[in-house]
Specification:
The structure is a single chain. The chain is α+β, with helices and mostly antiparallel strands and about 150 residues long. It has one domain (about 35-145): Glutaredoxin (3-Layer(aba) Sandwich), CATH 3.40.30.10. The protein is built from 4 helices and 6 strands. The protein has helices at about 1-20, 45-60, 75-85, 115-130; strands spanning about 35-40, 65-75, 90, 95-100, 105-110, 145. The strands form 2 sheets. A 4-stranded mixed β-sheet has the order 2-1-4-5, with helices on both faces. Strand 1, helix 2 and strand 2 form a beta-alpha-beta unit. It is globular.
Amino acid sequence: MKRIAIAVLSISLVAMLAVGLAGCDGGATEEKAPLHFIQFFDPDCPFCQAMEPTVEALQKEYEPRIEKFEIIDVSTDEGLVQADEYGVFITPTFVLLDMDGNELDRVQGAATEENMVKFIDRGIADVTGENAGAREEIPTTGGTEQGGE
């Protein structure tokens, strides 16, 4: 009887260990790309408004994959100071930086989701040392000039 109990206990312990290890990846987590994405927008800008669903989709997709995903409202005093620091005069403007603050790429004006994905993927390739392929300008459909009061 004692042997049966020990055998059942041993089998149960092995089974629990096997189930626990099957769902364990050894604590490894996917490392985020050292990339900082910034969108400068103005709530009154029609191009920014049109881009809102695209930016939301990009944020959902890329925020877990890159170090920083930031949206800056240039209609605020703080946002206006940051826009000035980055030389932003048109909204929307999208800037990619490495984690040392060096600008890697920029898109000024509204762009399709497909082109924004290319833009961010190109930035990820830049900071991870992957081959980003041919460097083409990201086409835009327009933007709103800022500071023209």
